[in-house]
Specification:
This protein is of the alpha+beta class. It is built from 3 helices and 6 strands.
């Protein structure tokens, strides 16, 4: 019969062995999450510069966007049309990720966080809430496949 201490030592040694095998795998996931984070930061910069054409390069052609008010937009063309037809002051949005989880097998990733909307020239958010995004790397580059924004009361 194996003693309790030996079982614990075996489990610990086994765990450490498994951990060392997956260390490289974890580093790859960190690189993928960093690549998504870089794409998100570049997208935020494009929005702040009111460069919708550049911002569209971070999305798939058939991207699905649900606005903070619940409007579903299908594809880049519909998103661009929605933006062109919007009234009121020009606004830009900043999305701040809280979490990015990558699935290397499906080449999909989950991002969630908070978003804020700013009127041009202001540093005080007018609106904001929570968001989530699905990313895909089927093309070799991480692109947004869908996004959901929910407007919530200001803190």
């Amino acid at each position: 019969m194996i003693s309790c201490n030996f079982k614990i030592q075996c489990l610990l040694i086994g765990f450490l062995g498994i951990t060392s095998v997956f260390t490289g795998f974890g580093q790859n996931l960190d690189l993928e999450a960093s690549a998504i984070l870089a794409q998100r930061q570049a997208s935020n910069q494009a929005l702040r510069a009111f460069n919708e054409e550049l911002n569209n390069t971070f999305m798939t052609d058939d991207v699905l966007n649900t606005t903070g008010a619940g409007t579903l937009l299908s594809g880049k063309a519909e998103l661009m049309d929605y933006i062109k037809k919007s009234s009121g002051p020009r606004m830009y949005w900043v999305r701040t990720p809280d979490e990015i989880i990558v699935n290397p097998e499906t080449k999909l990733a989950w991002e969630s966080g908070t978003w804020k909307g700013y009127v041009e020239g202001s540093e005080v958010p007018e609106v904001g809430g929570k968001y989530s995004a699905q990313w895909t790397k089927k093309s070799g580059t991480w692109l947004i496949q869908s996004q959901l924004f929910v407007t919530l009361p200001k803190d």
